[in-house]
Write the structure tokens for this entry.
Amino acid sequence: MKRIVSGIKPTGTLTLGNYLGAIKQFVKLQQKRIDDEFFLFVADMHAITTRQVPSELRKRTLDIAAMYLACGLDKERTVLFIQSEIKEHVELGYILQSNTYMGELERMTQFKDKSQRQETSITSSLFTYPALMAADILLYDADFVPVGDDQKQHLELTRDIANRFNNYYGDFFVVPEPLIPEVGSRIMDLQEPNKKMSKSDEMDKGYISMFDDEASIKRKIRSAVTDSYAKINYDPENQPGLANLLTIYASIADRSIQDIVNEYKDSSYKDFKEDLAQVVVDCLIPIQEKYNELIKSQELQDLLDRGRDIASDFAFKKMRKCKKKIGLGRK
Ligand code: TYM
């Protein structure tokens, strides 16, 4: 039996990129790996590395939990929880910070990008964030971590930290492997296809939110930037906008990109976009309906309580052993 762990940070709105890069992969893995255990959490501690409005943070945290389930996770087989409800994440995060070098954190491209954008008032937790992320994973002896491409570097650092700890203190942490989908691991912005689709973006035309209504989805796909070649072809270098749309189609429909290209090779961009818009609508609207049923339900609260209890039990035991290994405390 293997354990699969992943998380999403409740900042901005959840996008189609989060769904295709992470949530959908998680659902597929769950269907494929019936003997494995699945731990999934909302990384709210990660959200506060940048300023959040408390009421919005709390709402988004629950939104993500409900969305995970609405996307088709098996309720019985998922340990669904909220990161801040398990205090051991922060405790282990500090211990792992003490096993992480400044130089390693300085090399993280996400930190570099974010700090460049923000320029002033950069918090120290934004800098040490990857050590907390490593704790999220190592705390639960995760074998596999399904994530999008942008988290690859953080996963590599997690592996380095785990190996370093194991080398010094003796085998203790499972060294996790990232699972990055072949198609859909990097969904790009619809207006600037050289940039990742991001939930923190101000330009709402560039991303599809998981909460967008039918009209908005269609409008955004129709106005997605393409090129003047007027030929349906998969060429990320010269036709990045179109390549992104083909990727979205293939990823939602669980088909190969080549298959989609073959089907549409004689179509106009307009017709292709119309069909794609419908594919996205047909995918998102039923998810939204399930989300609406879940968000105010007692069932969601019960599942989060159960998830908290299971995760907490696991985390408590792992931390007790961890402190012993390091020499912290009296016994
Ligand atoms: P976050 O919240 O930014 O993103 C959540 C997941 O969505 C993926 N993703 C994308 N995939 C494809 N195309 C995109 N445009 C796109 N944008 C985002 C991300 O790769 C991620 O898998 N630090 C993490 C959250 C986290 C975590 C963890 C993940 C905290 N602890 C432990 C795994 C394990 C983050 O900020 O992801």
